[in-house]
Structure formats: C-alpha cells, structure tokens
Design brief:
By secondary structure, the chain is an alpha+beta fold. The chain has one domain. Helix content is 24%, strand content 35%.
C-alpha cells in the first residue's frame, strides 16, 4: 500500500477515534452548566416505571412506562422479550445537582448487542427535549443545556462501540413481584435501582 494512502487511512481512524471523546467532553461541560434540573422531581427519582408481568422458560413480559415530571404518562413499551432476565441499559450523566438518567435500551441475556439499539430513547424524545426532564420550572438556559446533553446522548445510537461510549449503567431485573409497578431510582452515587 502506498505511503500516502496509509497516512490518509491512519488520519481518518485517528479523527474518528476522537469523536466520542469530544462528545463526552462536551457532555461533561454542558452538564456542569445545569445547576438545577427538573425542579419538581426529587433528585433520586427518574420518571420511569417497570412492571414485569411474568416469565416463562424462554421469555419475559414487561411494561416500561415513561412520565413527565408532573406525572403525566408520555408513552410505554409493553411486550415480551426472548430471554429469562431483563435489563435496562441507561446513559447516566452527572450534574452538580443530581444524576440525569436516560433509559437507552432493553436487553436480555439473549441480546446480540452489548448496549442495545437505543430503542427506549424515542419513547420519551419530544423533538429535542427529553420529556422525562421537561419541567416548566426549568430556566431557558437549563432547558437549552438539557437539549444539548440529550443530543449527545442520542448519538449513542450510531457511534460504533469501538470508538468508545458515554457512561452507561445497566439495571438487571432478576427478582420481582409479578404485576407490581416499580419506580426507577438513582442514588447520590449514580447507582440505579427499582423500588415499589
């Protein structure tokens, strides 16, 4: 292979490898600008619930519901997945006031992809704003910053994993009481859990 072509290929790969680091750095800088997020939502609450209906030998049935900060239902996903154990993969963003949690994908132990396809994001994406954090109490600056953060989170759907990812946290649902609605919570350290 000619030297010029090798240099061009290496330059392209080097440039592409910096894309996610640039995005992650921007995400951190934007998140630092959010002094208060979702003023009416407690810092540990993520307006998302999970209800597992049951499990068979090779499928698990559940509903994942998304709410606005005022409790209004945005949308829900209700279906059966191939597998025995359900997991919700989320992008977690630290801000000075709290962690923002963006549910990203639903996976099972039979899922081919390690991080899913971003299928949950479209459930609460309202134009550029994540509806789960769309609170009237937000200032215009905070709203614009959340839009920027969310735009970066949404890129996870198309950036190849080989180039890196944003911070993900996975919540596995192993033990549950059937037909009970559990609420998604995030601790002060960024750990996810489900509570009744």
């Amino acid at each position: 292979m000619p030297r010029a072509r090798r240099v061009a290929i290496i330059s392209i790969f080097a440039a592409l490898s910096l894309v996610p680091f640039g995005l992650a750095a921007r995400l951190v800088s934007y998140a630092a600008l959010i002094p208060r997020v979702a003023g009416t939502v407690p810092a540990t609450m993520v307006p998302v619930t999970v209800t597992v209906f049951g499990r068979s030998a090779d499928t698990i049935s559940a509903r994942i519901a998304f709410y606005r900060p005022d409790g209004t239902l945005i949308s829900s996903v209700e279906r059966s997945w191939q597998g025995w154990e359900l997991a919700i993969d989320c992008v977690v963003v630290a801000t000075p006031a709290r962690y923002l949690v963006f549910p990203f994908s639903v996976l099972t132990e039979k899922s081919i992809s390690r991080r899913g396809n971003g299928s949950l994001v479209r459930q609460y994406a309202d134009d550029r704003v994540p509806s789960i954090y769309d609170d009237p109490a937000l200032s215009s600056t905070e709203r614009a910053t959340i839009e920027r953060v969310f735009a970066i989170v949404r890129t996870e759907r198309w950036i190849p994993a080989v180039f890196g990812t944003l911070r993900h946290a996975r919540l596995s649902i192993r033990d549950f009481e059937p037909n009970v609605e559990y609420s998604l919570r995030v601790s002060s350290g960024g750990k996810l859990s489900l509570v009744r």
